[in-house]
Amino acid sequence: MTQKKLPVEFYDLMEQLQAVDFVLLDLTLYLDTHNGDYEAIKQYNHYSQERKKLKKAIESKYGPLMQYGHSYSGYPWNWDDAPWPWQM
């Protein structure tokens, strides 16, 4: 299978998504032990919304990111359009 060439914008968006995912993971771990921290909850909710926006932006241009109902597919079935995780 030939690796698909993607624009720099794709990799920039993916890097932003990975950074937001890291923040969300870190906040989740923190909130597991500090569940009353209102500011941390606000930050978590903010980054959750940012993640949704980034995911939508990526998927609308480059195809779905996740399988099993977490992402919609275009027609025709477009799971093979985006690069596989090991190709990034």
Description:
With 88 residues, this protein is an all-alpha fold. It has one domain. 58% of the residues lie in helices and 0% in strands. The chain contains 2 helices and no strands. The chain has helices spanning 8-33, 38-62. α1 runs antiparallel to α2. The model has no long low-confidence stretch (mean pLDDT 83).
Annotation field: number of helices: 2
| N- to C-terminal distance | 15 Å
Class based on secondary structure composition and strand pairing: mainly alpha
Helix content: 55-70%
Strand tally: 0
Number of domains: 1
Largest sheet: none
The low-confidence parts are none
| Oligomeric form | single chain
Order of helices and strands: HH
Q: Give the strand content.
A: under 5%
The chain-level mean pLDDT equals: 83
Question: What descriptors fit this protein?
Answer:
88 residues; mainly alpha; 2 helices; 58% helix; elongated
Brief account:
This protein is mostly helical.
Please describe the topology of this protein:
Elements: H1 8-33, H2 38-62
